[in-house]
């Protein structure tokens, strides 16, 4: 680890931590402070994994695979350096919830990939009122001050040809998520009582402007992707992203675990519908949502099923039919389960009763009905497996590995690559749970995550 001018170089020569050389106030006087932190995933044994982000956030999970015991370590497969956007973003009002500048991580492309761009949007849910937004304000989901400086890349972000053959040498950008609205909000006024800034749409535009200036304006190939709330972002902003890139470029979008459906919870209450309505109202998102606002209420336009028909850019939907986030937060949120009947089931699908599994099969049916709105055009890609999972493109064990999930004997990496490069169309829907033995079903280890 060495300091070169404004950069702290860590490991490979093409990976650098960009430092904004501004005097720090307080105890350190005018001295600079330099820090580099990490994000890595370690396999404890073949059926258990632990994901750790050093710094502001700590999360544990176990991914249950289909093969036996054994110990191994998954390498970081490259890293992205966080870039400072103070100079122009803040002047445009493009800021996180707390007013700090937005940020993204960049790993430069190399070889034949220097003019290809993979822009991935971070996930992290949404905040729907001042109370929930204040709860995020001083975390990495509301402030760039709380974000790690160095972020490991794996899965679709791996820089190794053997583990990511189609995208390994592309320019890779991870846009950090700190606005709580899937980059749709834009409220000019800042309430002095909360000092909350609802500026997600401005953050989106500021980041895109910066990437265009860094070479994306010369892109030959570009892919906008995202996980969870970032996957929803990749749907909502898909056509806007396409419009930014040169006319002759191949431009497509990938949504990983971002197809959230409008479904009632186990009590028959429209919990997620009310939540999304509050998100749109709080963030002033209506004017930045796709054209479905002309035919329905703005809050409904956060549901992809009402938006995808009007998206013209090629779009790939990667989703588990039993998406763990949707089961926990749409089908059986805590408010609908005050006695915790669903607690163990939400922790581990193998703990679900026959009645609960029947309810989840009904949710799958609703999900498939919603996904049908995507249409059958070959420009639409579809990989819907029957796993209890959430986000499958960002980790090596689900993206491309010997034991990765498959549909029609095809890994997620191959399905996405074949679709992106027009080698073969891919539209596959799995058989119902528990038929798929290649799943990496998630097991949550604590009450907070459930």
UniProtKB/TrEMBL annotation:
A GO molecular-function annotation: pectin acetylesterase activity
GO cellular-component term (any): plant-type cell wall
Entry keyword Hydrolase: yes
Family membership: Belongs to the pectinacetylesterase family.
Function in brief: Hydrolyzes acetyl esters in homogalacturonan regions of pectin. In type I primary cell wall, galacturonic acid residues of pectin can be acetylated at the O-2 and O-3 positions. Decreasing the degree of acetylation of pectin gels in vitro alters their physical properties.
Organism lineage: Eukaryota, Viridiplantae, Streptophyta, Embryophyta, Tracheophyta
Enzyme class: hydrolase
Enzyme Commission number: 3.1.1.-
Keyword Endoplasmic reticulum found: no
Major site of localization recorded for this protein: secreted
Native source species: Dioscorea zingiberensis
GO biological process: one example: cell wall organization
Name assigned to this protein: Pectin acetylesterase
Transmembrane segments annotated in the record for this chain: none
Biased composition (Basic residues): 19-28
Family matches, as Pfam families: PAE
Xref: InterPro entries: PAE/NOTUM (IPR004963)
Domain of life of the native organism: Eukaryota
Compartment annotation: Secreted, Cell wall
Keywords in alphabetical order: Cell wall, Cell wall biogenesis/degradation, Hydrolase, Secreted
